[in-house]
Amino acid sequence: MTVRRVALVTGGSRGIGSAVALELGRRGFDVAVNYNNSAAAAQEVCDRIAAFGVCARPFKADVGDLSQVEVLFRQVEAELAPVSVLVNNAGITRDNLLMRMKTEEWDRVLAANLNSVFYCTREAIRGMAKARWGRIVSLASVVALIGNVGQANYSASKAGIIGFSKSVAREYASRGVTVNVVAPGFIETDMTGVLKENVKEALLKQIPMGRMGAPEDVARAVAFFASDESAYLTGQVLAIDGGMTMC
Ligand code: NAP
User: Fold this and answer.
1) Helices of type H across the chain
2) Residue having the nearest C-alpha atom to atom 12 of ligand 1
3) What pTM did the predictor assign?
4) Which long-range contacts (CB under 8 A, 24 or more apart) does 35-42 make?
5) What is the pLDDT of residues 110-159, one digit of tens each?
6) How far is the C-alpha of 194 from the C-alpha of 200, rounded, in Å?
7) Would you list the domain boundaries of the chain?
8) CATH number of 6-240: 3.40.50.720, 1.10.260.40, 3.90.1720.10, 3.50.80.10?
9) Which residues are catalytically annotated?
10) What b/e string do you get for 133-155 counting C-beta neighbours within 10 Å, with b at 16 or more?
């Protein structure tokens, strides 16, 4: 990479986000590591990225909150540079069967998973269009494609990311900005660590490769979408799921 570019990874403190932040740092990007609660973990990710000889800084913000997102982008621009690569990774689950799902569980998941993508993408897009280069990669999930019992809120938020991304991809395709989605299957992180053993076993039976994915499996695909190599790809959804969906 000849030009120095800044990548902002939302929820870069743990799990898939931290693997993405590290992979982008390894490939020469300066990295803004956003976190909400895990300050020490975010700092550790930055320290590891700095070993690649690039800049990395932690930035606290709840990306489901518009005013915090606005401050986040101002801080990243002041401390690093305008964002060239946005990875919308932050996400939460609040699982429940529909009959028992509280409005608060719906609202929190939609705010953290989908409103955040709208807020961050809208903040990032102007600078990218002006620079005539930008990459937006958002983390959906295979459940956006096939649904999942107990995850109506989460599936809706992730399906929303896909529709949103395809629309923005069309709006900015002529400006050198690509907008793509990765849809992970069953990846080994804190998010899936809370699942009961019998649930994990049932999920593993649905995966032709017979194993969970690693955060790095997802990070490499995100890094490809963030690179110049993917210049002619936009509005795509790539499932990274060991063959689970094949759709
Ligand atoms: P994780 O281990 O639970 O980590 C979630 C990350 O998101 C943490 O860094 C957390 O930061 C951050 N975060 C959550 N809410 C936030 C908010 N409001 N503002 C800023 N940061 C926030 O999750 P993961 O498994 O790595 O998942 C990453 C993404 O992949 C999510 O979008 C998830 O839905 C998606 N995904 C995961 C899987 C899987 O199997 N793991 C499958 C499909 C899709 P703090 O700790 O600092 O709060």
Assistant:
1) 15-26, 39-50, 66-79, 103-110, 116-131, 143-146, 152-172, 190-193, 197-205, 215-225
2) 11
3) 0.98
4) 35/11, 35/59, 35/60, 36/11, 36/60, 36/61, 36/62, 36/63, 36/90, 37/13, 38/13, 38/14, 39/13, 41/13, 41/14, 42/12, 42/13
5) 999 999 999 999 999 999 999 999 999 999 999 999 999 999 999 999 99
6) 10
7) 6-240
8) 3.40.50.720
9) 154
10) bbbbbbbbbbbbbeeeebbbbbb
Give 2 Cα–ligand 1 centroid separation in angstroms.
31
Atom of ligand 1 nearest to the CA of 90: 7
- Closest C-alpha to ligand 1, atom 31: 91
Please give all residues whose beta carbon lies within 6 A of any atom in ligand 1, as ranges.
Answer: 10-11, 13-17, 34-38, 62-64, 89-92, 112, 139, 141, 184, 186-187, 189-192
Identify which of 196, 202, 194, 166 has the alpha carbon closest to the alpha carbon of residue 181: 166
Q: What's the rounded Cα separation, in Å, for the pair 222 and 219?
A: 5
Q: Which residues of the chain have pLDDT under 50?
A: none
Q: Give distance in angstroms: CA of 91 to centre of ligand 1.
A: 4
